[in-house]
Amino acid sequence: PNVWFGPGVKIATGAKIHAFSHIEGATIASNCDVGPFARLRPGADLKQKAKVGNFCEVKQAVIEEGAKVNHLTYIGDARVGAGANIGAGTITCNYDGYSKFFTDIGEGAFVGSNSSLVAPVTIGKGGYIASGSVITESVPQDALAFGRARQKTIPGKGKELRERFASAAAAKKKATGSDH
């Protein structure tokens, strides 16, 4: 129910389209699973058994056979190889403010949650991207890549910040008579 189909949509027999999805200019092969709340924009091309889940957007991209783009993800100007898995919150950063660039994710690759793939970039077949990574360079076949700052924990600093923020908020409230 409540699925919107725009012009140029092609859907093969056996594909499942779940509620509140928005589809225009897309091709969906047999046994694909789309939504709920998915958005397929022009040029989205889902091959057999591909999955595009809830709150995902796909634009001008091929999702190859059996690849999964399951949750809260943007895939634009890209190819996701057969059997690849794209973790929740992943985005292909395809636009630099002037031009669009391509991301190529190889067959069987794994991209961990909340990763940003800054195009142009290639993730090789079987490549593994650690969660939370910002990937700015291509990753060879079967390689592990991670691009994030190392966690630093400062004991007592949370309490110090809380006290400082509470003091500043109290001073503001006293001066203005408002919490905002």
Please give a structural write-up.
This protein has 180 residues and is mainly beta. The chain has one domain (4-149): Hexapeptide repeat proteins (UDP N-Acetylglucosamine Acyltransferase, domain 1, 3 Solenoid), CATH 2.160.10.10. 11% of the residues lie in helices and 31% in strands. The chain is built from one helix and 21 strands. It has one helix spanning 157-176, and strands spanning 4-5, 10-11, 16-17, 22-23, 27-28, 33-34, 39-40, 45-46, 51-52, 57-63, 68-69, 74-80, 85-86, 91-93, 103-105, 110-111, 116-118, 121-123, 128-129, 134-135, 144-145. The strands form three sheets. Strands 1, 2, 4, 5, 7, 8, 10, 12, 15 and 18 form a ten-stranded parallel sheet that branches. The longest helix has 20 residues, at 157-176. The radius of gyration is 21 Å and the shape is globular. The protein starts with a strand and ends with a helix.
List keywords for this structure.
180 residues, mainly beta, UDP N-Acetylglucosamine Acyltransferase, domain 1, 10-stranded parallel beta sheet, 8-stranded parallel beta sheet, 11% helix, 31% strand
